[in-house]
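Service request form, structural biology core

Requester: graduate student, group of Dr. S.
Request type: structure prediction, single chain
Budget code: on file
Notes: please return the result as structure tokens.

Sequence provided:
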Amino acid sequence: MRHDYLIIGSGPAGLQLAALLERGGHDYVVLERGAGPGTFFETYPRHRQLISINKVHTGLDDPEMRLRMDWNSLLSDDPGLLFTRYSKRYFPQAADLIRYLADFAAATGARVRYDTEIVRISRDDDGFVAVDQTGQEWRCRRLVVATGVSQLHVPPIPGIETAQRYDTFDTDPESFVDQRVLIIGKGNSGFETADALVETAAVIHVAGPHSIRLAWQSHYVGHLRAVNNNFLDTYQLKSQNAVLDGTVESIERLPDGRYRVMFRYARSVEALREILYDRVIACTGFRFDSSVFAEDCRPTLVINDRFPEQTAAYESTNVPGLYFAGTLTQQRDFKRSTSGFIHGFRYGTRALYRILAARHHGTPWPAEPLDPSADTVSDAIIARVNRSSALWQQFGVIGDVVTVDGSRALYHEEVPVPYATGGGLAGDRLAGDGLTGGSGHGGGSGARHMFVVTLEYGPDHDSVDPFDISVPRVAENDAANAHDASYLHPVVRWYVDGEAAGVHHLAENLENEWNLPAVHQQPLAAFLKECLADAG
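Core staff response, request fulfilled:
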């Protein structure tokens, strides 16, 4: 049987897309190698505490705004399908997410075939052929891979095959009593492991070639989170542990079971040092597994071959009809925004659904008509930036798009920014109603004027220490200097005939309420009036 869509993987992204396809009445099937959804979370994180926040008590009545503080729920119209009903813990347990995903799959009617592992993917004249472990063929016109980064990324260090791995090592702290431990990798998995061993290991070193990036400063939640950085105290307060800056040159297993590690410091006159350890654990991140693809449809890989390269429509750059959903889409905003996490890719997955609907089913991107006056457009923008969760979570990546052409204006919500500005909207019939006044020039919707609305941090936000009061910064509600604001704030970019023509920043606000008349509303309306002066 040939389906329109074949989704590989029933993790959060696969289920999110399945729920949308199911509601839209489309022909699809999800194939999952595990016995239930969310198999990845049966193993990871190894110490079972998630770092995605679950803020149950927000004081907010608006369900859309509550999603800003709920990083685990998938998108649906059913208020019972919220993760906040499954745990009250701010950092919940992985088991809670597994229960939630199973209920989401059942409640949305997602058509999932479990215990079905795809071992080979090839092309035929009408799409793709996926072969499972029993030899059964599954054919589809379009393939969506939502498997996540399922394999450990193993760096090319001589002898690393003798080390233990994050995905398989014994996590019982009692097995590390009085041992010297080297953890390779300065990410959350490395520090999660180090924190778990502090009470039992004698010495713990966490090593890696790059500087530690703290999420509270970079605003990238994949950098080291505060919940995992207690280990830094034990280093800086001289408690036998340390963070080593440099590269592991080689690992050798000695006859007595210990490890000889040759380490090259990054900022020391001591070029190379030999250090002995009882245990070495590789916590070096994950990568996409492309081995199941035949040569004629194997996607191009980027970022040290860890992710498939994608267009602005989440499609493979070299295999037409092959799409990606979920954490794999972080290739588009790697270490800049939130596509690697549920609270980000749930919106990217909904955007992918809308792209597929526009491209293949003649369904225009949802849009609300507006009066084309600057005041009306300004009011619509202000209302959205003050409640949207998608713009909040996918900062700088997903935005709202307002198109104005003559006496017509349309407001389109949650459009991937590169898709909007790179011509995808026009090519995939964004409005489908004759808005063709502009020349296009490779971008925009076809309408002459286009405004792209995002929430963004300032360009140098990750170099600013927000806790250093000696460093001057733009004051709250400072409309005149909003373009220099470093914290999250709305940005409105203006395009004419597909070309960038202007930009307006709204002042940042302590409570993230961008609706003060003199500070936010009036300056935005003035900007829009200037932009639309000749639009009538």
